[in-house]
Every structure is written in structure tokens, then in C-alpha cells.
Amino acid sequence: MKSEEISDIFTPDVLQQLFPEDRTDQFFDALYGDAAEGTYDISLKFKTHRPNRLEFELNLLQRPGKCLQCNLTYGLPQVFSRHPVIDINGLVSKIDQLLNGRAQCAGWQIGSTREKSDELHTIPLTILLES
Predict the structure, then answer these.
(1) Residue ranges per domain, the chain?
(2) Angle 89-84-8 from CA coordinates, rounded to 5°
(3) Chain segment 60-73, per-residue pLDDT in tens
(4) Under 8 Å between Cβ of 20 and 42
């Protein structure tokens, strides 16, 4: 599958459907009992297609008036990998459906939190592919 074909699949609208904005509030409601306690918003970004893998990022963008602290985000990869609201397995299943047989998702890996700035941290999500 060509990289251009992949880029055409993962448009901003599709990424928004795969990981809707309200999922952040659902996550913080489940975690703290109140969505207003959340310090960041979570969104999905497509990075690139490499042979046998797709690379995405879960972006953590600081909410106005809140502080995005490293100690709050560094443990998230383990939490995200198994939290039912974040639902990485469900997300990968939906991505597999979007590939429509051109490739098949064979697994996934979640990386360590990366601090891009004080306001933005990212968590890499790699989806392994079979052709």
C-alpha cells in the first residue's frame, strides 16, 4: 500500500471520528469522577506510514488554566494501553476496517510519553501491519 493512499484515509475528520473529542471527558469522568478535573485534551494524529507499520500519536494538549505536568503524563502509556474508555484495541480494530483489506493490523505498541512543549505531550502509537 502506498503512503499517499494511507494519508488519504486518515484525514482530520476520520481521526476525529476514530477518537472523538468527548472521549477525553469520558476518560476523566471515569478516572476522577468529574471531567472538569482533567488537565489536558486527548486527540489522535496520523504521523506516517512505513513498511509494515502505521505511526500515530495521542496528543495531550493542556487545557486553559490547567498545568500539564510530566508526572501526570509519564505513566499514561500503561494506563492508555488497558483503559476501556481509551480502548486502544477498539481503535486498532476500526483502523483495520478502514484499511479495507489493503493491509491488515497485526498488533500495536504504545511508546513512552514525549514532552514536545509545556503545553503538548505526545504518546506514540504504532500499529503493525501484515500485507
Answers:
(1) 3-130
(2) 40
(3) 999 998 888 766 77
(4) no
